[in-house]
Design goal:
single chain; alpha+beta; three-stranded antiparallel sheet; 13 helices; elongated
Length: 407
């Protein structure tokens, strides 16, 4: 601790901020005006942390000896533009630099300018390390809340585009919207026939043929919406290239649309599964109430992946073909159509880290085994999903400015 601050008083006269305080020298050497010692101020933008301008610099009267104190008054005139500002007040030395950049504590004062008048919001003593940590926490919070708020603000647009996507996908066909139900149903029946009847795959907990169908369908529930959304994401920007040219259109909602459409598919598949479960076992377990605990991280993970693939697909046009192979590989590396016990022990340590692996196990646990999902894998799934969600959106947001030039 090189300096301490006390008796801090703030006063406003128009746009002039007057800061009075007592500073104590704990640096181990005297502060002399002749050596260029000053108390200076800087104005920064509190949102972007960008430097705006320097304020005045004042010298304490006389020499401030070690362990000595000095009364200081600094007057800082804020810009005319309306908004919030942050003022740093710190010791410094001419031609040497600001002491707060060397880790010294300094005063941080938040103010707002409205109608040509200044209003102080408060002050605190900070260090650059503490300020960076606070900025990091704030940035992480915004990194998560910004995409969520953006989705909420555009919920009506997303709802209408998802409805148009589902209806338009099957327009002119005899089945119409019913293909949204028939497609996942036929896919699940095909896999059930191949693995359950032809290959006679069985799960250890229930070796019957109906048991295999239930375990297989439970594993397909999280895979269907993920694979549908991730499979379409690389080409979604090209499909809506007219929107990309519009500067006011919220492009980040396009990957959200394909994710939401996949969630609609899952809703139909879940309804079919619960009906089959009710017919074969006579009831639906109360543990199904744990389902939102799985759907939320599944949605976050899928959104993050779709944002990443949608942005990358603009620059890598072959990604759509490569992505199909990767999804097929991902499917067979996840124990959906075979039991976990058939995986070699050496591979389990790696494959069990797969978020879809955790989701498949969780769906089977709550829907077929009647118990809550294990806490250990679940908190890790939530953490990984939140990180993928944040990084995927950050990747998309960073690249979106150049989409129009490429497309």
């Amino acid at each position: 601790m090189n300096a301490t601050y006390g008796s801090v008083e703030l006063a406003a006269v128009g746009r002039l901020l007057k800061v009075r305080f007592r500073i104590e020298n704990k640096s181990g050497h005297d502060w002399r005006e002749a050596d260029g010692f000053r108390i200076g101020s800087q104005i920064v933008d509190p949102e972007t942390h960008v430097y705006v301008e320097d304020g005045p610099r004042v010298a304490p009267s006389g020499t401030v000896a070690r362990r000595g104190t000095a009364e200081v008054e600094v007057g800082v005139e804020l810009p005319e533009q309306k908004g919030r500002y942050r003022v740093y007040v710190s010791p410094m030395r001419e031609e040497t630099g600001w002491f707060y950049e060397k880790g010294w504590p300094f005063l941080v004062i938040d103010v707002v300018v409205e109608g040509g008048l200044l209003r102080p919001l408060g002050w605190r003593v900070a260090t650059t390390r503490g300020l960076r940590f606070a900025i990091l926490l704030r940035s992480l919070g915004r990194a998560f809340t910004y995409p969520v708020l953006n989705i909420w603000r555009n919920r009506s647009l997303i709802r209408s585009m998802v409805r148009r996507d589902i209806v338009g996908r099957y327009r002119g066909s005899f089945g119409g919207v019913f293909w949204t139900l028939l497609n996942p149903l036929l896919l699940m029946l095909t896999y059930s026939f191949v693995f359950g009847i032809v290959l006679r795959t069985r799960f250890g907990g229930d070796p019957s043929r109906s048991g295999f169908v239930l375990y297989f369908l439970a594993g397909m529930l999280p895979w269907l919406p993920f694979s549908e959304a991730a499979g379409r994401a690389p080409m979604v920007m090209m499909e809506h290239r007219n929107f990309v040219k519009r500067l006011v259109f919220p492009l980040e909602t396009l990957p959200v649309n394909v994710t939401a459409a996949g969630l609609v598919t899952q809703g139909f598949a879940l309804a079919v599964f619960l009906l089959i479960l009710l017919v074969t076992r006579g009831s639906i377990p109360l543990s199904a109430l744990w389902l939102p605990l799985l759907v939320v991280p599944q949605l976050l993970f899928t959104l993050g992946v779709c944002w990443f693939l949608a942005a990358l697909g603009v620059y890598v046009r072959d990604l759509g073909q490569i992505n199909g192979f990767l999804l097929t590989l991902w499917f067979f590396l996840t124990p959906i159509c075979y039991p976990e016990a058939s995986l070699p022990a050496e591979a389990m340590g790696v494959l069990s880290k797969n978020p879809l692996f955790v989701l498949v196990r969780g769906y089977r646990t709550i829907l077929l085994e009647g118990s809550a999902p294990a806490f250990g894998p679940m908190w890790k799934l939530w953490l990984v999903s939140a990180v993928v969600f944040i990084l995927g959106h950050a990747w998309f947001y960073k690249l979106r400015k150049t989409f129009a030039d490429v497309i």
